[in-house]
Design a protein that fits this description.
Radius of gyration: 23 Å
Order of helices and strands: HHHHHHHHHHH
Oligomer: single chain
Number of helices: 11
Distance between the termini: 69 Å
Shape: globular
Strand content: under 5%
Helix content: over 70%
Structural class: mainly alpha
Length: about 300
């Protein structure tokens, strides 16, 4: 087996140019073909939304977000989701070449399978969230990632073909987790669109910092020596591909379940907060599979009365 080396730098240079060129092309097509709403149209949409929601709706400030427990729970969920998505993308090639001793061509085939299954998983999110709810769909994606982690851990070197199954599971599962986490972040923002950029920016900042710290720690504890008799590097990448994505998916699922419990408690306490009984009954009679984090109108009214 011919390992990766300096002789492959030319191929990686071509690959980088292809990726950059493709990204620039589609970015240009996006800006040329996607029509942006004018200020007048945006103002009309905001006015229409305000008329539908009523005069009691007040926008949240950054200070309000910083004192909101759900803001931190969704942030943790998004952080763990990004860890489950990004770490396998970084270390899968090293796992294939070091832990399974596959040919260097494998770093193209197996990630391609993961990306194809990610696309398939993205198409499954809509029907799954419609019938099972967003939180259950997220947990389902986390279960797929955890299953792939066990598969990576116990995958033998003698027959590497089943590794396609592990990459398919982690591709579909991580895609479902990411889409659902973004959807639940949008639900958290709800009608508070004036500070929506702060929420998304905070999630992204937490994601980048956590990924950087985790990857730095992985590299810091990387074993230095590898002999023909014993190669701790191979075991290290195997543990990395199993423990980090699986652990992140498990913690993300726990954060999602805590969100579900918090939402259930909020609905149970809603009648005691002085809300309109008709609105409560209407909310309880709506689709039970809808996993909006909480009813934004009722939540804002409750917060206003508490203040």
């Amino acid at each position: 087996m011919e390992p990766l080396g300096p002789g492959d730098s030319k191929a990686f240079s071509y690959l980088s140019l292809i990726v950059i060129g493709t990204g620039l092309t589609f970015s240009l097509l996006f800006h040329l073909m996607v029509r942006e709403s004018s200020d007048e149209e945006l103002s009309a949409q905001v006015d229409e939304q305000a008329d539908l929601l009523g005069p009691k709706i007040t926008q949240r400030t950054i200070r309000c977000w910083l004192t909101n427990k759900k803001f931190y729970l969704v942030g943790l969920m998004y952080m763990f989701t990004r860890l489950a998505v990004n770490v396998p993308q970084v270390y899968l090639p090293l796992y294939l070449t070091s832990s399974l001793n596959l040919k260097k061509e494998s770093i193209a085939y197996y990630p391609l399978m993961m990306l194809i299954c990610s696309v398939i998983g993205s198409f499954l999110t809509r029907p799954l969230s419609k019938y099972a709810g967003k939180r259950i769909t997220y947990v389902l994606g986390a279960v797929l990632v955890i299953g792939s982690s066990f598969w990576f851990q116990f995958q033998p070197k003698s027959n590497a073909c089943p590794t396609y199954g592990a990459t398919a599971l982690i591709g579909a599962g991580s895609s479902i987790m990411l889409i659902m986490s973004l959807s639940m972040t949008a639900d958290l923002i709800g009608v508070h669109t004036n500070t929506g950029a702060f929420v998304y920016g905070s999630m992204s900042l937490l994601d980048k910092i956590s990924n950087g710290i985790v990857i730095a720690l992985i590299q810091h504890f990387h074993p230095d020596h590898c002999t023909p008799v014993d190669c701790p590097t191979a075991r290290y990448y195997r543990y990395t591909m199993s423990a980090i994505p699986g652990g992140a998916a498990l913690l993300g699922a726990v954060a999602t379940l805590v969100l579900a419990i918090a939402a259930a408690r909020a609905r149970a306490q809603a009648p005691d907060s002085g809300s309109n009984p008709g609105q409560i009954q209407q909310a309880e009679g709506s689709n039970s599979n809808s996993d909006v984090i909480s009813n934004p109108v009722r939540e804002i009214e409750n917060n206003s009365q508490e203040q």
